[in-house]
Amino acid sequence: MADKTYENVVIEREGEVTFLYLNRPEKRNAMSPGLHYDMQDALLTLDTDAQTKVLVLGGKGEAWCAGQDIRLYFHGQEGDAAARRKSNNTSHNWRHELLTHFSKPTIAMVQGYCFGGAFTQLSACDFAVAADEAIFGLSEVNWGILPGGIVSWNLTDMLMPRHAMYYAVTGEPFNGKRAVEIGLVNESVPRAQLKEKTLELAGKLLKLNPAVVRYTKEAIRAVRRMGHEEARDYLAVKQDAMHKADKEIGEKVGMKEFLDAKSYRPGLGPYKRPA
């Protein structure tokens, strides 16, 4: 069955890895209301898509995403409160709800510009791989506004306070290598190797028990905002829930392979999953 076609996003597949691209290259993939609606629909569809085991968020053309489309998202909706509210809610929903809580691992594959509001979907992805040549920036300070949406919150969630403060207040752009140094992305490679490196990471994730991956990434996101006692109780319940959801019964299989068959070392790789 062919994937649904959209005006502002494109779905491409490589086996169990699904690439979801922002597709407004002539506008450096700046986010319009239409793009927000398309992203929301695509993510809702792919979250329950059996073929999609890893989701990669990319951008067509020479930019990943240049933030919100100022003309269409802001000025284009002046005087229409209902339209503005609808696009605001959708912008928030696909990034802070659907992408953040996507049931499969998500990877941001960043080339070219990543500016302003694009930091929100960057933060929402579980992993990020960037081109060395990518350009990240928070230019809002240059024209008299705060970082777009709740990007200030995203920054402090991802970065050490000193780094967040420096780049938000100065507006100074930085490249993929610097993004790795400050912890914004996991890896940076030359642009020509970007997709290959992203697929390499996706391949590692595909070898792992999908239920364990899902519950682990959910736990990591949740406990960051908890105190010690709350986190301990939450993780105990989460572990029980994961065991019930794990159709592979991974813990028992892994223990048997390690203790009885002595066929693998858990510190060096995953157990042999059933075909």
Describe the structure.
- The protein is α/β, with parallel strands linked by helices.
- The chain folds into 2 domains: 9-206, 2-enoyl-CoA Hydratase, Chain A, domain 1 (Alpha-Beta Complex); 210-260.
- The chain is built from 11 helices and 9 strands.
- The protein has helices at 33-47, 70-74, 81-99, 118-124, 151-158, 161-170, 176-181, 194-206, 210-223, 228-245, 250-260, and strands at residues 9-14, 17-22, 54-59, 106-110, 113-115, 127-131, 135-137, 174-175, 187-189.
- The strands form 2 sheets. Strands 1-2-3-4-6-9 form a 6-stranded mixed β-sheet, sandwiched between helices. It has a 3-stranded mixed β-sheet with strand order 5-7-8.
- Helix 1 links the parallel strand 2 and strand 3.
- Helix 9 (210-223) packs antiparallel against helix 10 (228-245).
- The longest helix has 19 residues, at 81-99.
- The mean pLDDT is 91.
Return the average pLDDT rounded to an integer. 91
Strands across the major sheet, in which order? 1-2-3-4-6-9
- Summed up, the helix count is 11
Largest sheet: 6 strands, mixed
Low-confidence stretches: none
Compressed to H and E, one letter per element, the order equals EEHEHHEEHEEHHEHEHHHH
CATH topology tier name of the largest domain: 2-enoyl-CoA Hydratase, Chain A, domain 1
DSSP, total strands: 9
CATH superfamily of the largest domain: 2-enoyl-CoA Hydratase, Chain A, domain 1
What share of residues is helical? 40-55%
The share of residues in extended strands comes to 5-15%
What is the total domain count? 2
Structural class given helices, strands, pairing?
A: alpha/beta
Name the CATH class of the largest domain. Alpha Beta
Q: Give the oligomer, counting copies of the same chain as homo and different chains as hetero.
A: single chain
CATH architecture of the largest domain: Alpha-Beta Complex
Shape call: globular
What is the alpha-carbon Rg in Å? 20 Å
